[in-house]
Specification:
This protein has 351 residues and is α/β, with parallel strands linked by helices. Helix content is 39%, strand content 15%. The protein is built from eleven helices and 13 strands. The strands form four sheets. A seven-stranded parallel beta sheet has the order 3-2-1-4-5-6-11, with helices on both faces. Strands 7-10 form a two-stranded parallel sheet. It starts with a strand and ends in a 13-residue tail after the last helix. 45% of the residues are buried. It binds NADP nicotinamide-adenine-dinucleotide phosphate and ligand F7E. NADP nicotinamide-adenine-dinucleotide phosphate (NAP) binds next to α1 and β5.
């Protein structure tokens, strides 16, 4: 019997990789999409199936995590074995502009989904997309025991969502897992996140569309990994005997400046010529230093990241150069091929 999965946030970076992965394992996948005035399904176009045809395995439903009634109805109707809650206002700086909205989507949206599952009385395994941002000011390395000290409305809402996920596990015996994932990136990363802003910016500089890129804090350090590897682990967490919480990261950290230097030099450009500072990209409070200690995931889930910082940068620069019609150096794509990591059955679609 094939399993049924329900994904909120299916149109996002992670949702699209997860949907691909689950379809490849024979799942029937139900995804929640928001009604928008422009298309928001570019990342899943390549796996879209015409609902008029027979044997459709990917089914999309209009919904919103701020509309609890839509969640209750969809959970009852789709009867999922596994639910992945990836929906979020996921931009940390934007959460300072939209604090209440961010709390509604990331915090209240989570408890609405948990309530929909609880009230349905169905046997569901639940994944919550928690974040390393929850550690905030806590010094590195961070693991499952590290105290949360959120430094943004985004992170505070994610801490709430994490704790209700744990609470529903303890109070009601639900099979809830919280994945505390450090930054993970890909050619499908939204263009306003720093990695993609750098790699897509490089492609535009090479294509002579722009000649300067503006950034905020270059000193912040992040533990950056490759998104498709992380979405597979979401699934692995739900296949374990017991529900638990896991930190997922590479155990390697680099500054935003390191990222810029690495990416520009790979593309054969002198970074100092193209980078300028703009205050608007600074945050009222920023997380200075994230570095994961993923020992638990290594031991219990067999986690061993194949794509590390340098490969990640090469993969993203390669795809962004292709997206503007340029021939890339190709080392990133070559690495994916050599290691059997070309997960996507599509050409990478820009986020
Ligand atoms: P993303 O690309 O920004 O995708 C977010 C998804 O949530 C999109 O599908 C978006 O829909 C959807 N969404 C937003 N508001 C919604 C609402 N009110 N109702 C229903 N859907 C809504 O984010 P991502 O990078 O894939 O991240 C996935 C999840 O992991 C998020 O919860 C994020 O906070 C968390 N996370 C991400 C990272 C990371 O490094 N990527 C690390 C830790 C945790 P539209 O396409 O319509 O906007
Ligand atoms: O910023 C600095 C910025 O926006 C990384 C989300 O997926 O990962 C992501 O959150 C760093 C910060 O990611 C610019 O100040 C400098 O220190 O790429 P980012 P994030 O804030 O770490 C976590 C784990 C999540 O959970 C989130 O959902 O880069 N930075 N200059 C800049 N950042 C941006 N975006 N743009 C700049 O111009």
């Amino acid at each position: 019997m094939s399993k049924t999965a329900f994904i909120t946030g299916i149109t996002g970076q992670d949702g699209s990789y997860l949907a691909e992965f689950l379809l490849s394992r024979g799942y029937e996948v139900h995804g929640v999409i928001r009604r928008t005035s422009t298309f928001n399904t570019q990342r899943i176009t390549h796996i879209f199936q015409d609902p008029h045809e027979a044997d459709v395995h990917l089914k999309l439903h209009y919904g919103d995590v701020t509309d609890a009634s839509s969640l209750s109805l969809l959970i009852r109707e789709t009867e999922p074995d596994e639910v992945y809650n990836l929906a979020a206002q996921s931009h940390v700086r934007v959460s300072f502009d939209l604090p209440q909205y961010t709390a509604m989507v990331n915090g209240v949206g989570t408890i609405s989904l948990l309530e929909a599952i609880r009230q349905s009385k169905q046997d569901v395994r639940y994944y919550q997309a928690s974040s390393s941002e929850m550690f905030g000011a806590s010094p590195p390395p961070q693991n499952e025991q590290t105290i949360f000290h959120p430094l943004s409305p985004y992170a505070a809402a994610k801490v709430y969502a994490h704790w209700v996920t744990v609470n529903y596990r303890e109070a009601y015996g639900m099979f809830n897992c919280s994945g505390i994932l450090f930054n993970h990136e890909s050619p499908r990363r939204g263009r306003t996140f720093v990695t993609r802003k750098v790699t897509h910016g490089i492609a535009e500089i090479l294509a002579k569309k722009i000649d300067v890129l503006y950034f905020g804090n270059l000193d912040a350090k992040r533990d950056w990994g490759y998104a498709p590897e992380y979405t597979e682990l979401m699934w692995k967490m739900l296949q374990a005997d017991k529900p638990d919480d896991y930190v997922i990261g590479t155990g390697e950290s680099h500054s935003v400046r390191d990222l810029i230097i690495e990416a520009f030099s790979y593309a054969g450009l002198e970074w100092e010529k193209y980078i300028k500072h703009d205050e608007r990209y600074m945050r009222p409070s920023d997380v200075n230093y994230l570095l994961s200690d993923p020992s638990k995931a290594r031991k219990k889930l067999g986690w061993n990241p194949k794509v590390r910082f340098k490969e990640l940068v090469r993969i993203m620069v390669d795809y962004d150069m292709l997206s503007v019609g340029l021939e890339p150096p190709g080392e990133g794509i070559e690495f994916l091929k050599k290691n059997g990591l070309l997960w996507s059955n599509s050409e990478e679609t820009p986020g």
